[in-house]
Every structure is written in structure tokens, then in C-alpha cells.
Design brief:
The complex is a heterotrimer of chains A (484), B (131) and C (422). Chain A is α+β, with helices and mostly antiparallel strands and 484 residues long. Helix content of chain A is 30%, strand content 21%. The two termini of chain A are 40 Å apart. Chain B is of the alpha+beta class. In chain B, the strands form three sheets. Chain B has a five-stranded mixed β-sheet with strand order 8-5-6-10-9. In chain B, strands 1-2-3 form a three-stranded antiparallel β-sheet, covered by helices on one side. The longest helix of chain B is centred in the N-terminal third of the chain and has 12 residues, at 35-46. Helices cover 22% and strands 35% of the residues of chain C. Chain C starts with a strand and ends with a strand. The relative contact order of chain C is 0.13. Chain C has 422 residues and is an alpha/beta fold. Chain C has helices at residues 13-24, 62-75, 123-126, 139-149, 164-175, 194-201, 261-266, 303-321, 401-405; strands at residues 2-9, 30-33, 49-51, 60-61, 79-81, 85-89, 94-99, 103-114, 118-120, 136-138, 151-152, 156-160, 179-185, 208-210, 212-218, 225-230, 243-246, 249-252, 256-258, 290-292, 332-336, 340-344, 347-348, 356-363, 367-376, 380-389, 395-400, 412-418. Chain C folds into three domains: 1-118 and 256-325, FAD/NAD(P)-binding domain (3-Layer(bba) Sandwich), CATH 3.50.50; 122-254, FAD/NAD(P)-binding domain, CATH 3.50.50; 328-422, no CATH class. In chain C, α1 crosses α8 and α5 runs parallel beside α6 (194-201). Chains in contact: A-B, A-C, B-C. The interface between A and C is large, with 59 and 53 residues. β23 (472-473) of chain A pairs antiparallel with β11 of chain C.
Chain lengths: 484, 131, 422
């Protein structure tokens, strides 16, 4: 019996798991996919918002500003790259200017520091490649960029280090409850827990309805993105927004923490909660719209594209103990600024559990520090020498586009949450994230996973489940099946 | 008498050849830019041949497979018989380039030979720096 | 710090030929740096035949062709560092390398030859929409799995792009028992060699769908099918022509891109069309003492051409190191005129030419019965009537030094197609 089971190992679920792991509690983090950060947390804008967008008094407004404040400490403790690059919301005409003033006021009410409007000269000095049509911008120095799946992985790993269990690749099928506990039935196990946290992203409403709570509904809203080659990293220094629309914050152009340029998203409501397919029209739409801000954005520089689903439920987050059973905490409708808010949401949920009567004693040996995988590519010569002296595997480059070494991949395979799929390795060590998109390193990464974990090469998957990479061995000789 | 259109493959030019055949003899080749093209056209119609390349299982080698080829072109009609023989074969390491792997493959009178060296797995010098 | 007379970056066909030529030209200490565990580069996985007709006058497979040059390199005492990655090159030829034996090292080179080859365009670069399942490979990656590692990438295969590797892999996978459903080519013509279309597709009844592309990928975990569609003259899919093709694998053979990240960081000037360094007749880049050859300069069809061109680079690098390289500026600019997409080299210094200089270029469309015109800023040099020219087949023209010497003080040579595209 667990004290708490968290359904959904996205950024929200993982941050909650981390925060709860500082107390004497038994925790289980559960996800239907084969890695953490496999849903919305891997397909979003990777922005730490300043906090001027949300209406004052909403959960979004409060948690955004609080989350922004917390982000630096969380990222330092978890060894996750976070850059406070600042954001610029562009204005192209007088209507936009009105919007800028309105949002600046709203931001100030929400408690966003240092907001100011900058005009053409200063704006174009700050960003050399934005459109000449931009006349001014709302400058928010506290906005930043973070890698959302790195934050999720780091938080989940830290939770595991501090004693949390993690169960991946199991879908919740039903939830029973009685007076002292819940029985969460998955495709693999039955998990008993005293408290349930529903952080299931686009499925949060379906999970809540399993205990009869139909108080909210999630509409998946798809957003598509393109990533540009690092060679074009100079195109944007800040997060560059266009004036928001009813459907969201509009198409942005932003640097990523890794030095690429991210372009997107559009916003289209969809019915299918698994529909993460990109469309020709969608990709065209975001590239065309992005050129309004940064005209030099070009299809030629795209190295990959992806789509994610925002979990939208009305105008605000839905974070509350369920009316059906107060031991069931709903964390739903976490669309933008969900990533920014995640640490603050974790604190809020902890407070709910406190109020709900779960005894909370601090763990004596809680360790808030999680050390990430060394990043050879970002090191100077001395650091590289020291690393290789420690383990020669850090001297062997496997992914040449991103300069990822064998040592980094071996470490990813052997982390607290082991990476045994190509996508999991990619998200942890960046092997295959570069311009060749894994053409060269795939065979070598598979060889390393195979050797480290004793899995046959043709048993390795891209992302778990039935996503096998190779369909078998070539049929040669008699009994030609003894190679792995 | 029949006329066949085939693409000459001898050089990047890729002439479109028109070959007129009567039974076992070629009456005429048209469209060729050179003499070689003429004989290619005739041969491709009367006795088309291909070099078959594939790989054979290696036992105890540094690599699981050794690449192989037919030492000369085999009749096109025999390609699949050659492949079946190649897929059924295996060879012990070490293997050296040119080594005969299958004699007289599929009764064509032509051997299958190795096109790469494969050392024994225990012979590999692990820290090899210089060739 | 380690010092070498000539350092060759890349141990594929280009690097091997350059290294051998550098030794032959008198450089004593020539070292190849190769990131793989063995020399030979991509040839090691190209187990099909058709290599070497020009250089060795016989038909070899890739590994055989590579072995001939590896043997020559051994005979000439070329050194090599295998399983070693070059991290950086400076304009004054300091090279930072890393491997798991010696860690990080700096090498000072008398001259450098860049021979890093090229990479394949990926799905991301094409931006094919749809899901992101397993089962999408570039043709070269699939080739490595099948020929080197002995694994099948899939069983029901659609190939996008009729580049040579795609055609070769269509046959290869057919022979290994897979069902290759079709090859789609967005252009009205194939970029592959005629010989490969005949022997890899026609022989096995694999359809080649010209003017078709893949417009969408289906399948959540493993690819389950693709939508293909006919395209119009602007290569845009024609609405209503979509067709669903079930498959478990999509192979991409949609072009190669010279790998010039090192060149770029060294500050070498690149040609925006080829993506490779701008070079002169000696294959010298914009930085003196740094030469480049093979697919890192421009993507070749025939390895024989790579070897020939690389020997020029290797020899020039040796001369540079020995102080025997005439460092005066290349006075003649070589330009791609109408109908010519790009040309290599981009400049000629006649004093450095031994006997003749060969210009390699590609036309931008299919031309039948057109005329290639070579002219200078002063006059038309000559016209060559060509039966057929296609972008997929590289053209070359040899210009004798004695002939060019007679043209007086020329500043430009222009190659153009005089005639209509098909």
C-alpha cells in the first residue's frame, strides 16, 4: 500500500513526486508510456513565462509567477539548464500597442517584476533579426527557456533517488475506492494507495471520471512546432511572441537551451487524445506566421518537427481535491503556463494533502540535489580532460552532430530511471537530436544499450511497446540466430 | 522477329537501345552511341547476366557477415538460385578477399567469392591505432 | 603536441586517395584521422559491385575497392588514428581530436585535407508530416544494418527518393526476403544511375513512381503505412491523387549533404549550392594549406571520380607542406552559367596545373540534344554537343593547360548549356 499514487509522469506529476519525496511517504509515480515526459511534456514551447498573460486572480496567474520564481532553484538543484533569456511580445500596429499596455498592467497586477515597453531602436538593438515592421515590444526580463523533458526527467529521477517508485508502460483501467484506500487497476498491476493524484494530462478527465467525478472536461488542443539547425541559433536571443489570440499565445520564435531555434505552435482543437501527428498545412502555417516576427526563418533549416497536445479545460487550471472524494486530488487542465507553474503546482498539491489529513513528516535524509549526465559538448578543454581521465568512454564520440560520447550514453542507460529506448537516450543524452537526426548513431546507440542491458539489438524499441526498430536478423546459414 | 527496347547501362549516358532479335540471333541494334553499347544490347537480349552480391554468415569472426559476389556474371534467371545457396552457406573465420565461399554456385559454373577480409574474433587487436 | 606533415580528416575513399597521393608526392608523415573503427568509410557497407571501372578497369564491390586503397596506404606507410573524432580545426591548422585511448589531443599539421564525406537528408529535413513511429530509416542507415550488422530494418518497404543508395537498397532488401512495394520519386526523372534503375528495380519488378512523393506517415508505435500522392510541376501534391500504401518501413534516399560543420567552424568559405567548400584547381579551400576533396566538396556519383579528385588534393597538400606550393592567387574564376547548377573547381591558377584541369559540374534539368558551351570573358572556347544530360549524372570537361595558356590573359571561364530543357 502506497501513501500516494501519482497518475501521469509528465512535468506536473514528476514535480509533485519530487516535492512529496521530501516527506516520509511511500510514493508511486505511474505512466502509460514507457518513459516519463512522453506526452505534453515533450511537445511544448519550453518557455518559462513571466506571467503577464493570465487574468489576475486565476490559478494560472498565481502559479505562473510563483513557478517562475521557483524555477531557478529547482533547476540548480536538479542540474537542469535554465536560461532567463527574457521575452519580447512584439507590436506591429496601434491595436497591438493597446494590447501591450493592457498586458503590462495585467502583469504588474499579477506581480511580474521588471516589465517595460521598449521601442523600435532599443528593440532592434536587442534583436537583430526581427521584422522591421515591429514597432515596439513588451519586454519581460524574467521569462526564460528550460528543456521541459529534462526538467521532468530530473524531477522524476530525484523522486526515485529519494525513495519514490516509478512504474512505466501501464495504463490505468479503473479505480475502486473504499473508506481507507484506493485500488488503481492498471494493465499490469493493481496498486493500492491512500491518496491519488490525477496528473494525467489530456486524460485527467477520464481518470477523474473513474471515481465518478465528471466536474471538468479536457479538450486536447494541438500545437505543431519546427526545430531549426543550431547554425541558425543567432536568429533569436529572446523568446519572441506575437500578440496573443483567443486560442493561445500565438506563434513564437525562441532559442532553446541547447542553442537551436524553436518555431511554433499553432492551435487546433482535436478529438483524439493520441493525435500527435503533424500536418503539412500546420507546419506551413507556423513557418509562415513565424516569418511575421523573424523573416529569415526558413524551411531549409528545419531539422525536425513535432506536435504536442495542450490539456485545455476552460480558462484556468483545475487543481482541487475532488468533490467526490477529497483524497483524490485533481490536477487538470494544465495547459500553458503549466511548465512554468509545475514547481508551484507541486507545492500547492502538497498543501492539499496536508489539509486532507495525510501526516507529513520531513525525511531526514532527503537529498534535493540531482546530478545530471555530464555534457561533453558544453565543456571546456580542462573539463573534458578530467572527464576522460575519470572514464575513457567519455573520449569516444558516438553522436557526431551533437558531440555525445559513449560515456554519456552508458550513463543514460544506467540512471535511476534507466533509458533503454532510442527516444529515452535521445532525451537524456541528446544522441540523435542533431542535424542528421540519428542516421549515423542509431546502430551504435543500439549496440551500447544491448551491451549494457543484455537486450538483443533487434529487441530494442524507439519508445517502448511495439515500436521495435529492427524486425529481426537477416536469414543466413543454419540456425543463424546466435548474434546479439 | 521481335524488337525490344532496353536501356544501356555501360556508362552514365544510358542510351536507349532498340534490339531486333530473330530466334537466337540479333538482327540489329539501334540507338547505341558506341560499339560497346551494341554488344551490350545483343547480350542483354540473348543472354542477360548479373553479378550477384550478398553476404554469408561467418562463424567466429570479428563481423557476423562477410560480403560476397559471384566471381563473374551469372545468368539473370539464376539470381534467386544463387541467393538461396548464398543464404544457406556459412564460412569459418578468418576469411580473406577473393576466397572461394561456394564453388560452382547453383550449377552456373561460377564461384561465389568473399569481397572482404574478416579476421577471427579472438585475433582482433583491440587497441589498434596504426594500420 | 603531435605534429604531422599532412593530416587527412576522414578515412573513406577520398581520404585514402589523398593520403596515398600525399605520400607519393613526397610528404613523409601523413596521418588519416577516422571516426570509425576501420578505414574505408561508407564503401565498407556498399557490398554491391560497380566500383572502380575507371581507376582499376574492373568492376569491384565497395569493400574490395576500399581494400585496394587501404593496401596502398599501408604500402606507403600512411599512419592512421581510428575511432577518433575531430572536434575542431583552426585556420592555422591546429586540430583537436578525441578518442578513448589518448583522450583529448592537439595535432599541428603542415597541411590539412578535409575528406569528411557527406550525410543523408533526414525525415526532419524533408519535414514529412504525420506521426513519429519507429521504422523510418535513411537508406544508408538501413544499408549498414543489413550489410554490416546483419539486421533487417523491416519487411514491407516503401522507398522515397530514387537516389542510388535507395535503388541499391530496394534490391538488397528484396534479395533478403523483404517486399519492396515501390520507389517514389518527386522529380520527373531519377537521380540514380541508369544501371541501377535497370538492375535494382526492373530486374525485380519494383515499380518506380515518378512525380510522386510521401505526404503523410501513419502509425503510432511502428509505421503502419504512408500516403503517397502525385505532384504537379511545382512539386506540390495534387489533391485527390492520394493513395494509402501499407508498409512497416519507409526508407529515405532523398539526397546527400556534404558534412561541413568542421569547415564552417574553421571559417572556410562554403558554396551555398553544393554546401561544400569553395575550392581551386588544387582543391585548396579559402584558407591556405587546407584542402578538401570528395563528397565533402560536392556529392559525386562515382567513387572513381572521388579518388581522382582526392589525389589532386593530396598531392597539393604535400607540396604545400614541402614549401613547393605556388601560393600566388588563382587568377581565373570558373563560373556556372545558365543551365549549370554548380561547378568545381571555382578558380584556376594555371601555373599550378601540370597538364590539364578537369571541371566537374551538374546541369539543372534534363537536356536532350543540347550544347555545352565553354567560354572565357574574351571568347567562346568551344561547344560540345551532348545527346543527353541529366542532373543525376555529373558532367566533366578536361581543359589542357597548353590550350588555356593560348587564350591570353583571361579572368573567367564559364560553362553553360546552350539549348532548351526538356
Amino acid at each position: 500500500m502506497y501513501d500516494v499514487v501519482i497518475i501521469g509522469a509528465g512535468v506536473v506529476g514528476s514535480c509533485i513526486a519530487r516535492e512529496l519525496s521530501r516527506y516520509e511517504l511511500s510514493i508511486c509515480l505511474l505512466d502509460k508510456e514507457w518513459d516519463v515526459a512522453s506526452g505534453t511534456s515533450k511537445g511544448n514551447s519550453a518557455i518559462v513565462h513571466a506571467g503577464y498573460d493570465a487574468k489576475p486572480g486565476t490559478l494560472q496567474a498565481r502559479l505562473n509567477v510563483k513557478g517562475n520564481e521557483l524555477m531557478e532553484q529547482w533547476c540548480t538543484e536538479l542540474d537542469v539548464p535554465f536560461k532567463r533569456v527574457g521575452s519580447l511580445l512584439l507590436a506591429f500596429n496601434d491595436d497591438d500597442m493597446g494590447e501591450l499596455y493592457k498586458l503590462m498592467e495585467q502583469g504588474r497586477t499579477n506581480g511580474v517584476p521588471e516589465l517595460r515597453i521598449i521601442y523600435k531602436d532599443e528593440l532592434h538593438t536587442m534583436e537583430h533579426h526581427i521584422s522591421g515592421d515591429a514597432i515596439a515590444a513588451l519586454y519581460a526580463p524574467t521569462a526564460g527557456v528550460v528543456c521541459p523533458y529534462e526538467l521532468t526527467i530530473a524531477a522524476a529521477e530525484n523522486a526515485v533517488i529519494n525513495g519514490a517508485d516509478i512504474r512505466l508502460g501501464q495504463t490505468v483501467q479503473s479505480i475502486m475506492r473504499d473508506s481507507d484506500s484506493f485500488e488503481v487497476v492498471t494493465t499490469e498491476h493493481t496498486i493500492r494507495a491512500r491518496y491519488v493524484i490525477d496528473a494525467a494530462g489530456v486524460y485527467a478527465d477520464d481518470i477523474a471520471s473513474m471515481i465518478g467525478d465528471n466536474s471538468f472536461k479536457i479538450t486536447p488542443r494541438k500545437g505543431e512546432y519546427c526545430i531549426l539547425d543550431k547554425a541558425k541559433g543567432y536568429l533569436a536571443k529572446h523568446v519572441i511572441f506575437q500578440p496573443p489570440t483567443a486560442m493561445g499565445k500565438g506563434v513564437l520564435v525562441t532559442p532553446t537551451v541547447d542553442g537551436n531555434i524553436l518555431v511554433g505552435p499553432n492551435a487546433h482543437d482535436v478529438n483524439d487524445k493520441e493525435d500527435m501527428a503533424t500536418t503539412a498545412e500546420g507546419l506551413q502555417e507556423i513557418m509562415d506566421t513565424a516569418r511575421k516576427s523573424v523573416p529569415a526563418v526558413s524551411e531549409r533549416d528545419v531539422i525536425t518537427s513535432f506536435a504536442g497536445l495542450r490539456a485545455v479545460s476552460g480558462d484556468d487550471f483545475v487543481i482541487k481535491p475532488s468533490d467526490v472524494d477529497s483524497r483524490f486530488i485533481i490536477v487538470g487542465g494544465i495547459c500553458s503556463p503549466g511548465l512554468t507553474s509545475a514547481p508551484a503546482i507541486a507545492l500547492m498539491v502538497t498543501e492539499f494533502l496536508h489539509q486532507a489529513g495525510l501526516i507529513i513528516d520531513a525525511k531526514a535524509d532527503y537529498n534535493p540535489i540531482r546530478k545530471g549526465i555530464p555534457r561533453f559538448r558544453e565543456m571546456n578543454e580542462d573539463e573534458r580532460r578530467r572527464l576522460i581521465a575519470m572514464d575513457p568512454a567519455f573520449g569516444r564520440v558516438i553522436c557526431r552532430c551533437e558531440t555525445v560520447t559513449e560515456g554519456e550514453i552508458i550513463e543514460a542507460v544506467n540512471r535511476p530511471i534507466p533509458a533503454v529506448t532510442l527516444d529515452a537516450i535521445k532525451r537524456r543524452a541528446r544522441a540523435g537530436m542533431g542535424r542528421c537526426q540519428s542516421g549515423f548513431c542509431t546502430p551504435r546507440v543500439m549496440e551500447i544499450i544491448s551491451k549494457q542491458k543484455g537486450i538483443p539489438v533487434d529487441g530494442i524499441t524507439k519508445k517502448g511497446g511495439r515500436s521495435i526498430v529492427l524486425t529481426g536478423v537477416v536469414q543466413k546459414g543454419d540456425a543463424y540466430d546466435d548474434r546479439t | 522477329m521481335t524488337t525490344r527496347n532496353i536501356t544501356c547501362i555501360l556508362c552514365p549516358q544510358g542510351c536507349n537501345l532498340e534490339v531486333t532479335v530473330d530466334g537466337d540471333s540479333v538482327i540489329q541494334v539501334k540507338g547505341n552511341a558506341c560499339g560497346k553499347g551494341k554488344s551490350y544490347g545483343a547480350e542483354e537480349c540473348l543472354d542477360p547476366r548479373r553479378v550477384v552480391t550478398s553476404s554469408v554468415k561467418v562463424i567466429g569472426g570479428e563481423y557476423p557477415l562477410v560480403s560476397v559476389k559471384t566471381a563473374a556474371p551469372v545468368p539473370k534467371a539464376a539470381i534467386w538460385d544463387c541467393i538461396r545457396a548464398i543464404n544457406a552457406a556459412s564460412v569459418n573465420a578468418p576469411v580473406s578477399i577473393g576466397q572461394v565461399i561456394i564453388e560452382n554456385v547453383a550449377g552456373t559454373g561460377i564461384d561465389v567469392i568473399a569481397t572482404r577480409n574478416v579476421a577471427k574474433s579472438d585475433d582482433i587487436v583491440k587497441e589498434k591505432i596504426c594500420i | 603536441m603531435i605534429e604531422h606533415d599532412v593530416v587527412v580528416i576522414g578515412g573513406g575513399p577520398a581520404g585514402l586517395a589523398a593520403a596515398v597521393a600525399a605520400r607519393q608526392a613526397g610528404a613523409e608523415d601523413v596521418c588519416i584521422i577516422e571516426r570509425d573503427k576501420r578505414l574505408g568509410g561508407i564503401l565498407q557497407q556498399c557490398i554491391h559491385n560497380g566500383f572502380g571501372l575507371h581507376i582499376f578497369e574492373e568492376e569491384l564491390t565497395g569493400p574490395e575497392y576500399a581494400q585496394r586503397f587501404i593496401d596502398m596506404a599501408r604500402q606507403w606507410g600512411v599512419h592512421s588514428m581510428l575511432d577518433t573524432m575531430v572536434l575542431d580545426i583552426t585556420p592555422d591548422r591546429m586540430i583537436t581530436v578525441v578518442n578513448n585511448r589518448d583522450g583529448l589531443q592537439t595535432i599541428k599539421a603542415g597541411a590539412v585535407v578535409l575528406a569528411m564525406g557527406c550525410r543523408e537528408r533526414s525525415r526532419g529535413a524533408l519535414n514529412i508530416p504525420g506521426t513519429r513511429p519507429a521504422g523510418i530509416f535513411t537508406a544508408g542507415t538501413a544499408q549498414r544494418f543489413v550489410n554490416m550488422e546483419g539486421f533487417m530494418p523491416g519487411n514491407q518497404i516503401v522507398v522515397l527518393g530514387s537516389g542510388d543508395i535507395g535503388l541499391i537498397m530496394a534490391r538488397r532488401l528484396t534479395l533478403e526476403g523483404a517486399d519492396v512495394k515501390m520507389v517514389c520519386e518527386i522529380m520527373p526523372y531519377s537521380s540514380g544511375l541508369k544501371r541501377n534503375i535497370v538492375q535494382c528495380l526492373d530486374d525485380f519488378g519494383i515499380p518506380l513512381r515518378m512525380n510522386h512523393t510521401v505526404t503523410e506517415i501513419h502509425g503510432k508505435e511502428r509505421i503502419e503505412g504512408v500516403i503517397i500522392a502525385a505532384v504537379d510541376q511545382n512539386r506540390k501534391p495534387i489533391a485527390g491523387s492520394e493513395e494509402y500504401v501499407p508498409c512497416d518501413t519507409l526508407l529515405l534516399s532523398v539526397g546527400l549533404i556534404p558534412e561541413n560543420e568542421l569547415s564552417r567552424s574553421a571559417g572556410i568559405q562554403l558554396n551555398p549550392i553544393t554546401g561544400g567548400p569553395v575550392v581551386d584547381e588544387s582543391m585548396q579551400t579559402s584558407i591556405p594549406g587546407i584542402f578538401a576533396c570528395g563528397n565533402v566538396v560536392h556529392v559525386n556519383d562515382l567513387v572513381d571520380n572521388v579518388s581522382t579528385e582526392s589525389a589532386i588534393a593530396g598531392k597539393a597538400a604535400a607540396m604545400y607542406d614541402l614549401g613547393m606550393f605556388d601560393e600566388s592567387k588563382a587568377g581565373i574564376k570558373v563560373k556556372a552559367g545558365p543551365g549549370v547548377r554548380y561547378i568545381v573547381p571555382n578558380a584556376i591558377n594555371l601555373t599550378r596545373v601540370d597538364d590539364a584541369v578537369t571541371l566537374y559540374f551538374r546541369v539543372d534539368n534534363v537536356y536532350e540534344g543540347a550544347v555545352l558551351r565553354v567560354s572565357t570573358d574574351k571568347s567562346i572556347l568551344f561547344n560540345i554537343k551532348k545527346k543527353i544530360m541529366v542532373p543525376g549524372e555529373m558532367q566533366h570537361i578536361k581543359l589542357k593547360k597548353s590550350f588555356l595558356g593560348k587564350q591570353g590573359d583571361i579572368s573567367d571561364i564559364v560553362v553553360e548549356v546552350a539549348g532548351e530543357a526538356n
